[in-house]
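fold-stage: in
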Amino acid sequence: MLHGCRRKAQPRVHTRQVATHPPARRRRPPNSPFTDPVLAPIQEYSVDDRVSHDSFGLGRVVSVQGDTAVVVDFGSRTVRIPTPFPKLHKL
């Protein structure tokens, strides 16, 4: 053992674990004046539906990819639009 040599104590490193799941929904008492937010239903589209998009204009649905997206032909371009569709309106 060496005398006179002192090793400095290493600082402790604390790591935080990140939660990978969304937080739990807050339960409200039954007599609460506040209500839970109501989610708007997802608009359903089928092939050949005429649609209007706020940015791209008028178009026609070319294909529907389940509940995940629709592919729309706007004449000059074909665009895949993922759900939700806030800017897409059925005519």
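fold-stage: in (second)
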Amino acid sequence: MTRTTFQKYAPRTANISIALGDKAHDLMAILGSSSSGNLNYNASEKITITVDDPSAVGGKDTVRLQVGINLTVIGSKDWPVSSPAEDAASREVEARMVAQSNNG
């Protein structure tokens, strides 16, 4: 696997559901990379949950939570950026673009 292949063909997002009590919270993680160089999916959102609280008006209170999820593509920092075939295809596309711009 190369970084180029993964970034081209992997899903752009990952849908994640977190269940807290009887309520599900849906998050969307986006494909990216970490400072360590690994490819990953990352989601960071604030959610609100309701908690029983006998001292609160109505017997319930709300609490805000910060949710952070990172899905690391293990070992991807060691993957080559591209393969020789990908490099050749990229050079071919670039050569065609140059030829078209020179002809028009």
